[in-house]
Amino acid sequence: MPKQKSTARDLERLLPAVIQSLFGGAEDPLESIPIGQLRMIRHLESGPKTPTQLANMLGLTMGAISQLAQRLRSAEILEEQIDEHDRRSKTFALSARGQELMERRAAARVLKADAILSAVPVDVQQSLITGLEAVLRCSNVESIDRSTK
Fold first, then answer.
1. How many angstroms separate the CA atoms of 73 and 108, rounded?
2. Which helix (H) or strand (E) holds 92?
3. Cβ(114)–Cβ(121) under 8 Å?
């Protein structure tokens, strides 16, 4: 088997297990939120989005976006912002409560991951980060700016 396929298979096998071990079971204030809603919340972390932007990012219909938004508004996690110059134009953004829940979630996940990573040599940690960032660059996905997290 070519090395590249072997590496891809190793990643396919390892990444879900690593993610589960690093972040699973962490105190998550959003653990009862369905995955579709959580995906929408994650996209809104970087700032307000139009329903069309969210539909494109999530690969969902506008109707599905409306349903997700309604559920998240009911949970006071999302706010709908209407353009004052064009009342037909709206964006969705995380509410103050939604931002606070995501911050608590991130803090709990970082705490758990830090505890596990403390047993991993620093040079291996750096190699891991460097490698994952290289994969992101090759997949045309922007790397997350760690300086703001």
1. 24
2. strand 90-94
3. no
Residue keyed to tokens 């990012």: 57
- Return d(Cα 80, Cα 50) in angstroms, integer: 10
In DSSP notation, 39-60 reads: HHHHHHTTS-B-HHHHHHHHT-
- What are the angstrom distances between the C-alpha of 4 and each of 7, 8, 11, 98, 109? 5, 6, 11, 41, 31
- Cα 78 to Cα 94: distance, rounded to the nearest angstrom: 4
User: pLDDT for 82-104, tens place per residue?
Assistant: 878 887 889 999 999 999 999 99
pTM above 0.90, yes or no: no
